[in-house]
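To illustrate the input format used throughout this study, we show a single complete record. The first block contains the structure-token representation of the backbone; no residue identities are included at this stage. The design step must infer an amino acid for every position from geometry alone.
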């Protein structure tokens, strides 16, 4: 699919990795690596969205288009919705949220995520892979998603779902859940509706924004990526692992 826009939300503050977008990986800042992944996709435009002048200056130095946003946003989705308004994007324009801590996200998967919205019955597109291990199944930092027979999301959770009431069915439970990856495609109009709505009770409990979309009755189409993306960068250990991957 061509004609979509990639927006990279980037903020300087990070509890576990301060200044994360400007940390270096193989001689380039993380935000430059993410921007390059966006430009390698079929996107007609790639935009960095930030409220921090340091990130803006870094992006402009390597030739990126930067959109300055407010500092009140609680999520990347809210920041991207402001970009949609600043750029006056139509409600039908497809926008991909490429998170600023995903320097190794393959361009092919950005395209795949956007293409999920070729189906007009899908409101949001995202990607999820089979779980790699039982440890991931039990890990609350690995978000799980269950899908129906049409590959639409039923529920996202940090807990191990589905629950195997019969211990002999634990393998089936493991096969039924998918490891959710934090990349999304939205139509701008859907994104505007999403950020205008109040957080749902389920979102508040799980701290997962996508549960607001499900509570609103929006359809989230889940694609299984053709290759498993690397883990995003949240800690110093993640940064070191990414440095090794790029070396």
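Output of the design step:
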């Amino acid at each position: 699919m061509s004609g979509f826009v990639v927006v990279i939300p980037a903020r300087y503050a990070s509890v576990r990795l301060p200044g994360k977008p400007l940390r270096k990986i193989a001689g380039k800042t993380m935000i430059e690596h993410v921007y390059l992944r966006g430009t390698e996709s079929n996107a007609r435009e790639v935009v960095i969205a930030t409220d921090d002048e340091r990130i803006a200056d870094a992006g402009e130095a390597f030739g990126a288009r930067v959109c300055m946003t407010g500092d009140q946003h609680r999520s990347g989705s809210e920041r991207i919705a402001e970009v949609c308004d600043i750029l006056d994007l139509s409600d039908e324009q497809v926008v991909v949220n490429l998170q600023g801590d995903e320097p190794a996200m393959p361009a092919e998967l950005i395209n795949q995520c956007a293409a999920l919205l070729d189906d007009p019955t899908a409101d949001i597109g995202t990607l999820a892979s089979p779980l790699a291990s039982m440890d991931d199944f039990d890990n609350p930092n690995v978000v799980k998603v269950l899908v129906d027979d049409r590959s639409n999301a039923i529920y996202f959770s940090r807990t191990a779902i589905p629950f195997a009431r019969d211990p002999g069915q634990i393998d089936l439970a493991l096969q039924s859940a998918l490891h959710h990856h934090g990349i999304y495609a939205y139509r701008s109009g859907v994104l505007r509706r999403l950020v205008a709505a109040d957080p749902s009770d389920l979102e508040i409990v799980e701290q997962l924004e996508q549960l607001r979309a499900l509570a609103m009755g929006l359809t989230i189409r889940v694609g299984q990526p053709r290759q498993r993306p690397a883990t995003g960068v949240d800690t110093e250990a993640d940064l070191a692992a990414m440095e090794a991957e790029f070396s």
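Structural context for interpreting the output: Residues 5-246 form a domain with the Spore Coat Polysaccharide Biosynthesis Protein SpsA; Chain A fold (CATH 3.90.550.10). The radius of gyration is 18 Å.
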